[in-house]
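Reopening this ticket.

The earlier resolution said the output was attached, but the attachment link was broken on my side. Pasting everything inline this time so it's all in one place.
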Amino acid sequence: MVYEQNWDLDSIFAGGSESTTYASYIENLQVDVRTLLTKVSDPANAGVTECAALLTEVQKIASRMRHAGAFVGCLTAQNVKDEQAKLLGGRVRAIGAGFASVLTQLDQNLIDLGDEEWALLLSTPHLKALQFNLEERRRRAKEKMPTAQETLVNDLSVDGYHGWSSLYDTVVGRMTIPILQDGRTAYVSPGQAANMMSSPDRAFRSHVFARWEEAWAKEADFCALALNNLAGYRLSLYRHRKWDDVLYEPLDYNRMEPKTLAAMWSAIDQNKARLVKYLERKKELLGTGLLSWHDVTAPSAEGDGKMSFDQAATFIIEQFRRIDPPMADFTAACFAKRWVEAEDRPGKRPGAFCTTFPEKQESRVFMTFSGTMNNVATLAHELGHAFHQSVMNDLPPMAQQYAMNVAETASTFAEVIVADAAVSQAKSQKEKVLLIEDKLQRAVTLLMNIACRFLFETRFYAERSKGPVSKARLNELMVEAQKEAFANSLDEYHPHFWASKLHFYNTGVPFYNFPYTFGYLFATGVYAQATKEGLSFAPKYVALLRDTGSMKVEDLAMHHLGVDLGEQGFWQAAIDAALSELDEFLALTEGQQP
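Inline output:
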């Protein structure tokens, strides 16, 4: 083994959840946040010069908050039963509430500046790079409640809003799913069970899916309680802020116009028939006459496409080098420095993520690697996130705050590089078919599965505005959304998907769904440009990534790609590129027997 599959967290804070260094770090952070709150609340510090100095201090504290949160996030992901890590997470959230109050008071100070004072502040030399971010911050502050009320919200959210999210994490952490395999029953984590549903053995896959549904049904009471209270909190807050559209915050957070979102979904709706063709062929290839939810992301036949972790790492580095050598060098360093946690073992949380430690200018990638090509794509995806952050490390912290939709640009770009390379290097027709299918499955996930999440969440909020929604009704809403998003092309759906999907319980980003689809299609357009221009595109790509924290997405696309995101033309071209191998797949599998 060349590359280790366990990340190095000791270089950040030695000792894990028992780290005395980390304990001191967050203790000092709490003291400094309280001190900063006193300072920012002092009327004597509300002038232009004082605000400029405070903005520097606030950014430093913001980096430390991110650093502290990233560490505890890694601890709880690598071991969902780490009780001390959970306690530390609560402590960090409490400090975060205090820092949120700092930001709320700072925002009030910015609002209180007159027009001439505001212009003077923006002209301050060390703040010139933050003009977009400061203008955005001031505008958003004007749309919220008075400072005292927003401060109270920050304090109450720790044990209220974020507390419900923590309850969900506790539920997932205690779950084990009994899976019968090779005549023995194994009790696996949700993350392991999710990987098992990629098995080429449909009978086994069906068994895992049935146990998966049963396991989440048992926890549905807790999940429904958490989901209802999270949504109720948001709706109440929106009402007091006089925001009458539940999509206002997620669109504003993603620096995105409603017209852009509408154009994207409209283009997808007009192309669903193409995706249904793939799903119908998949049903034929499975030879069962049925297509279940668990079949959609599983291979239609068993292949020899497994990779070891070392092979995957080497393959990813090699493919990145074809497009962007600095990206390849950075990725090689990620593996060499043990920035990746990929071991397939019990006790890990499901899913994958990339997080950043600003104080060290390092990232960490988390996933569970079992050797599938889908795992390889996921690994490349998360490393793309890490590269994105690396090219922004020298920018002011406030200018590094890019939204989720553009955050998916570099990750999806990286994933497409690897997927295209795998197809082009296929050693047989069978392998090529399976690799193209993997790409088509990705398209189905981003254009149909994510769509069903968006439809579900939109309709759930509409019903939740009238009162709590029962778990039975949540199941109904989920299946209705799945049927619409998949154009009634499946024979079996996933009623408890609302419970099993972590993203519905995220308190950091509302509507944790449509940005994935945006990022997928936007990155597809960026990749098309990269393949057209070759290595000369690499510096342009970095320039685009560096601007993701200081532009609205429509301006970003026009400035760097010359396209209008409010028109369907861009989205149609991106969908065409994403589905460019569909006809080849249909031709290669014509008349193929299961």
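Reporter confirms the inline version is readable. Strands lie at 177-181, 184-188, 340-341, 353-357, 362-366. The radius of gyration is 24 Å.
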